Structures are given as structure tokens and as C-alpha cells.
Amino acid sequence: MRITQNNFYNQFVTDQQNLKDQLDRLTQQMSSGKKIKYGYEDPQVFTDTLRLDYEESTLNQAVSVATDAQNFANNTDSVMFQFTDGLTRFKTLLIQAANGSNADSNYYAIGNELKSLKEHFVNLGNSSINGRYLFSGNKLDVKPLDDNGNYYGNGEELKAVVGAGVEVPYNIPGLDLFFGEDLNVNRTVTTNVALTTGKGEAATPGTTLEEITGNDDAYTFVINGRTGEGEIFSKSKTLEADATVEDLLAAVEDAYRNDRGESQVEVSLINGYIQVRDKSAGRSQLDFHIYGVDTQDDTKSLDFIKSEGVSAASYADEIPFAQTGEGSFRGNMPQIVLQDNSYANGTTKLSETTQSDLAGDTVTVNATDKEGTVHTFTYSLDSDFSPQTADEVSYRQLFDKIEESLNSETAFSDARVYFDRTGKINVEANGLSGLTMSDDATALLFNTNDALTVDDPKHDFFAAIDEAIAAVENGLTYPDGDNGALARNPGIENALARIDHVMAHVGKEHTKIGAMSNSLQYAVERNETLKLNVQTLRSDILDTDIGEASVKLNQLSLNYQALMASIAKVQNLSLVNYM
Fold first, then answer.
1. What's the pLDDT score for residue 546?
2. Which domains does the chain have, with CATH numbers?
């Protein structure tokens, strides 16, 4: 093969350019710290880098979200500590008020401090961070509480996305904190008229009826109520004058026996008041009423439960709804679904809240207008909701009928029937001045003259606070059925039990936010570790190995110098050198 000057020149240019390209690439890699600058230089490296960049960006976002959520949770945790401190002080003041030796001025002073604590609780409930309310559920821009403690948020959780398919809640909805339910709590109710002897002393289990009534007549006791399983009953028991209170308590316990012969309640006498406690926790159906009549003189009675404006003998028949405002009335019986102890809503069937057969049952509403005229509306569950049967009728359908009936009368307008947050029936209408609602078979309870609630699985923060404040302000240590508007107040002693429940519930919610905060902290740490791993892998793929590049640069520099030296020597040769 003949080597010409042209061949020599072309080969020189090619080799020189290759070396210069390699030197330029190495110099660029060393100066930028990256193996490539453009995707076409190495598609595999470019693809891996894009994927790792996306993963790093996602992890950065997850860390940011988790950190923000953790700050939210930590702020909630701080507020929960203040709730606990405030409730501890609240209970201390209640104990002080319950010692029975306070002057009226002391009750007034304690009541004022309790009111200031309620205001403090409202302010805590309205805590906001960076314009977001802590206890509004997911309605972050809605102030959750008004001055009276009425709640306007919801029960929705806020969730932080801290990974692929991984969500961690980070708030306590006010609906859970201020209401909620504790399935380890047993419903307990109490009478509000104490059994006393002729000497004015509180009766004991050994006290005889004669010592209480002051005569030797027998008494027939009518015991009405509803078991924790939802069975409504009415039973009677006649006791002779020499029978003791303990015999009466046994009769109450027997009234709550189920078909299996098992008593579902514990009955006790505390300071002369009969208390009934559901043996099974987590049920809110238990109800109780008792009334005694002298068998020789029916004008003589023994009262146990009284409500303002209601006969002590009445239990569920046409008990007036409580007025809550102009043209607004509310029943006192929460409508509760037997299956899961939840509050009923519009779609709930009437049959889901009772064990009784509703076939043939009718519901009667008596609405009084401003002129005092009573308008009576009767609804047959069998025929007025056809083609549905009585067991298929929903509360919303019944409410619609009542609204239609009220609006059909010229005395009323803009009628509205609905459930409030605690499952109680509310009826509103212009011109309405009184209302009763009952069914002829007492298969459903809408409003009753029942025993007072001491405690219940369903928790109501501000209702418990308000009851306690009212009891202290009026020096009401125990319930007093003769105390007019305060006849339904359980008194300071029972309020203490309710506040204990409130404190336990707040403590339970507090532990939840602590666990959430820990989960978010773990998420931050996990994502930071993953991000470090991604960055390391990305560095291995994309970043220049300076040591390796330096060795290659030295090698290529020597090669280039050798090439240039060879070229210099060859260029000096002529034809004479070959002759």
C-alpha cells in the first residue's frame, strides 16, 4: 500500500481530532462534575437521571408535606395540653363546690371562674395556625365554635400524602373532640327526686316504704323505660308497706330482664336517688321512669322523676317538646340506630331504632299556634306511606309529612323538621308556640319525662360544661325535681362523673394526635433517608469520578503529546531519507 502525503495528513487530522474530542469531553466532565451535558451523549445515563430527578423531587415534596403536617399536629398537641390543664382546674373547682359548706358568694365566685374556663375552652377550640383552624375538620377557614360552644366544623380528617399510596392523618376534627363516642363507657341515669324518711334523711336500702310514705298502705310502682338493647317496656310491681327500698331496687332490676332472664342493668341507691347503669358498655338506648301510687288512695303518690310543667306520672305520652327559640322546639330523646349505636339521619328507617313491631302504629303531632289552638295531625305508618310498609318508613318521609301538614294550616308557615347533631328531632315553623309528638303504641320515643343522664357513651363537651356551671351557680349539689327550670340538671356530684368522662375522652384524643405526630416524624426521616439514597445513586450514575477522569486526562495528554511529536518527526523527512 502506498502511503502518500494526503493519507498521512488525513490520518493525522483524524487522530488529532479524536484525541482533542476526548480531552475536551474529559475537561468538560471535570469542570462540570457531570458525565454528560446533553441527553444524546449517553441516553441510558440521561434516562436514569431523569427518573432519579423525579424521585428526588417527589421525596422533597413528601418531606415538605409531612413537615407541614407535623407542625400542624404539634400545634394541636400543644393546645390539647392546655385543654387537659383547663379541665383539671375545672374538676378541682367542682370538687370544691361539692363539699357542701360553701356560702352563696363562694358558689358565685366558683361559677365565675368556671365560666372563664369555658371561655378559655372556646378560645382553645378556635385556635388557628397560619390562618388554618385546628379543630374545624377539613373546613380550615371556618371558625369552629361560637361563644356558646356550638360547633360549625365537620368530622373530616386531614391527611398528608407522605409516599406512594401512603396517607397519614394529622388533625383532630372538632366533631370527634367535642362530641365523639367512647365504647368503654356505660350509660347511667338517675332520678331527680330523692327518697327520704319522715325525718328528712336520705333513704337507705334498708328503709321501709312506710318510713318514706308515712302510712302503712301498699304502693303499686309503674316502671317504664327502654333496655340497652332497645326494647321498650312498661311493668308494674306492688309492694307492701314493710317492703324495703332494696325490694324496690330489685323490682327495677327485674323490669330490665331480657327474654333469657338476664338483668341488663345495675341498680343502686345514692343519697336517696335511684341510679340505673347499663351493664353493657357502648350503648345509649337505656331509658328509665318510675312512679308509685297508693293502692288505697290514688291521690297519694310517690314521685321519683319530675320535669317542669309535666306530671310526674307521665312518661312518654304527649310530653311537650322544649322550646329552643321563636317557633322552634326540640325533643329530648336522641334517635339511635340499634345496630351500631349511631345517631339516626333522614334515611334511617324508624324500625332501625326500636325492637318493637311498628305494624298498626300511628304517630300523632299536636301543634299549638299563637292563638292557643291545637292542630292535631295523625300519620298511620301502615297506610299514609303506601306502598311502603310501616317497617320501611324513614325519618325523612315522616318529617316531610309533618312539614306538609304544618304548611297546610294558615296558622303556620315555613315549617322545617330535622335532626340536630345529637340525633334529637327539631321542629320549626312560623306561628308555632307548642308541640308534642308521640306514637300510640309507645314503640318509638320522641320526648319523655325520663331519668336524668349521669353519663353516656356519647360525649358532649360543652353540654357537660354548661350543666356543671349551672349546678354550681345555683348551689345544686344533687338533682332537684322541684327546682323548676333546673329540674333536669343532674347536680354537682353527677357533673363530676360527666367531667371525668370528658377528661378521659380528651385524653384519648390527645394520644391520637401524639401518635399522628410520631408517624409524620417517621415519614420525614424515612423520606430523608430515601432521598439520600436517591442522591447517592444519582451521583454514581451522573457525577464524574474525578480520580478516574484525571488518570484518563493524563493518559490522553501523553498520547496527544506523543502524536504531535511523531508528526513533527515525520514532517521533517523527505524523499532523500528513503533513497
1. 52
2. 34-180+459-543 (1.20.1330.10), 188-315+450-458 (no CATH), 322-439 (2.60.40)
Give the whole-angstrom CA distance, residue 98 versus residue 477.
6
| Pair 408, 360: CB distance under 8 Å | no
Q: Please state, in angstroms and rounded to a whole number, the distance separating the CA atoms of residues 375 and 411.
A: 9
The rounded distance, in Å, linking the Cα atoms of 481 and 219 is 21
Residues of the chain short of pLDDT 70, as ranges, are 1-56, 59, 100-102, 527, 531, 533-579
The residue among 438, 290, 310 whose CA lies nearest residue 366 is 438
Which of 132, 150, 153 minimizes the C-alpha distance to 76?
132
Nearest-10 Cα torsion for 24, 27, 28, 31: -160
- pLDDT computed for residue 39 by the predictor: 47
Pair 437, 365: CB distance under 8 Å = yes
**In this structure, what are the phi and psi dihedrals at residue 147, rounded to the nearest 5 degrees?**
-65, -25
H or E segment and range at residue 82? helix 43-97
* pLDDT of res. 432: 97
- Which pLDDT does position 508 carry in this prediction? 93
Q: What's the N-to-C CA distance of the chain in angstroms?
A: 18
Alpha-helical segments (H) within 457-490: 461-473
Phi-psi region of 440 (alpha: psi -120 to 50; beta: other; left: phi over 0): alpha
Nearest-angstrom CA–CA distance, 289 and 210: 22
Q: Which 8-state DSSP code applies to residue 156?
A: P
Query: What DSSP string runs through 314-341?
Result: -SSTTPPPEEEETTEEE-SS--B-TTT-
Q: What are phi and psi of 438, to 5 degrees?
A: -155, 170
SS3 assignment, position 186: coil
Neighbours of 399 (CB within 10 A): 19
Amino acid letter for position 250: A
pLDDT of residue 165: 75
Closest CA to 395 of 334, 436, 348: 348
The CA distance from 507 to 459, in Å, is: 13
On whether the CB atoms of residues 236 and 222 are closer than 8 A, the answer is yes
Distance CA 330, CA 301 (A): 29
Give the closest residue to 273 by CA, choosing from 187, 194, 189.
194
Q: Which residues pair with 208 in a beta bridge?
A: 244
